Amino acid sequence: MPDYKERFGLDFLLNKQASSSRAEPLPPGLEDALLAYGGKVVAALKAAPQHKRSLFELVDDTNTRVDTLLPVLNHLLSKGYIVRVAQDSKGNDTFQLTDAGQKVPA
C-alpha cells in the first residue's frame, strides 16, 4: 500500500534532498503537518478569487488551528509556492499562490 505522501500526492511539499541533508530533523509532527495541511492550503488558494486568502480565511477554509497552519505557510513561503501580499498589524496577513504554486497538484 502506498504511503500517505503517495496517496495524497503531497510529496512535493518536502524537498527530499534538503530533508536528507538537514543537520537537525524536523520537530515531531511538523513533517506530517506540512504534508497534511499543505495540500489543503494550496487547494484553498486555488479556489479563492485572485488566488488570495487571509490567514484567518485559510484557517476557516482548512479547518485548522492557527498554530498548526503557520509552520505550513512558512514552509510554502520558503519554497516559493505562495507569497505574502499584505501584512496586517494583528497578524491576519494575506497570502497569494505563485505561478509555481499553481502547478502544484491539490
Question: In a few lines, what is going on in this structure?
Answer:
The protein is built from 6 helices and 3 strands; from the N terminus they run H-H-H-E-H-H-E-E-H.
Chain-wise SSE layout:
Blueprint: H1 4-8, H2 16-21, H3 30-47, E1 52-54, H4 55-62, H5 66-79, E2 82-86, E3 94-97, H6 99-102
Antiparallel strand pairs: 1-3, 2-3
Helix pairs in contact: 3-5
Overview of this structure, please?
The model is unreliable at 1-8 and 15-22 (pLDDT under 50). The chain contains six helices and three strands; from the N terminus they run H-H-H-E-H-H-E-E-H. The longest helix is centred in the middle third of the chain and has 18 residues, at 30-47. The chain is 52% helix and 11% strand. The chain has helices spanning 4-8, 16-21, 30-47, 55-62, 66-79, 99-102; strands spanning 52-54, 82-86, 94-97. It has one domain (4-102): Arc Repressor Mutant, subunit A, CATH 1.10.10. It starts with a helix and ends with a helix.
Number of helices: 6
The percent of residues in helical segments reads 40-55%
Q: Outline, from the CA principal axes?
A: globular
Biggest sheet strand order reads: 1-3-2
Oligomer: single chain
Order of helices and strands: HHHEHHEEH
Might you state the CATH topology name?
A: Arc Repressor Mutant, subunit A
Major sheet, described briefly?
A: 3 strands, antiparallel
Task: Find the structural class using helix and strand composition.
Answer: mainly alpha
Q: What Rg, in angstroms, do the CA atoms define? A: 14 Å
> What is the class in the CATH system?
Mainly Alpha
CATH superfamily: Winged helix-like DNA-binding domain superfamily/Winged helix DNA-binding domain
Distance between the termini: 21 Å
Approximately how much beta-strand content do the residues carry? 5-15%
Low-confidence stretches: 1-8, 15-22
CATH architecture: Orthogonal Bundle
Number of strands: 3
